[in-house]
Amino acid sequence: MFFKDKKETKIDTEQHELLEHAQNRITQKKRVYSHFVIFLIGSVFLILINKILKFQDQYDWFIWAITLWAFLFVIHAFNVLITQKFMGKDWERKQREKLVLKQKQRISEMQKEIETDFPIANINKKKED
């Protein structure tokens, strides 16, 4: 009664990592789209402040503010939509694998070098003598 067999869904670690990565990407893209909508609304607001409310209307300062904000938005979008695509989890994994392979090659080269300089057969013979 109290100890009924509960069916547990077990997700292996690889699936869990894939789901986590997918959720992070969705969140990043959602933030870019939100940033774009806020940018549009904010730009209209800045124009209204300058032109309609006549706040320092002798100079069109909103152009500089919108240009700076647009530059920041482009950097944000580039980072999320382009850079993350090329330098994301897969890229990191490939780089890690390359580095591990290089380390293994260096270790094997060092072992060969040690074995040629100090052969095990000679060491065993010296111990027996």
Query: Helix fraction?
Result: over 70%
Spatial gap, N to C terminus: 75 Å
Whole-number tally of structural domains: 2
Shape: elongated
How would a crystallographer describe the biggest sheet? Answer: none
**How much of the residues is beta strand, in percent?**
under 5%
Pattern of helices and strands: HHHH
Tally of helical segments: 4
How would you sum up this structure, described in words?
This protein is 80% helix and 0% strand. It is an all-alpha fold and 129 residues long. The protein starts with 12 loop residues before the first helix and ends with a helix. The mean pLDDT is 82.
Helix-strand layout with pairing:
Layout: H1 13-52, H2 62-86, H3 89-117, H4 120-128
Keywords:
129 residues, mainly alpha, 2 domains, 4 helices
Short synopsis of the structure:
Helices cover 80% and strands 0% of the residues. The chain is built from four helices and no strands.
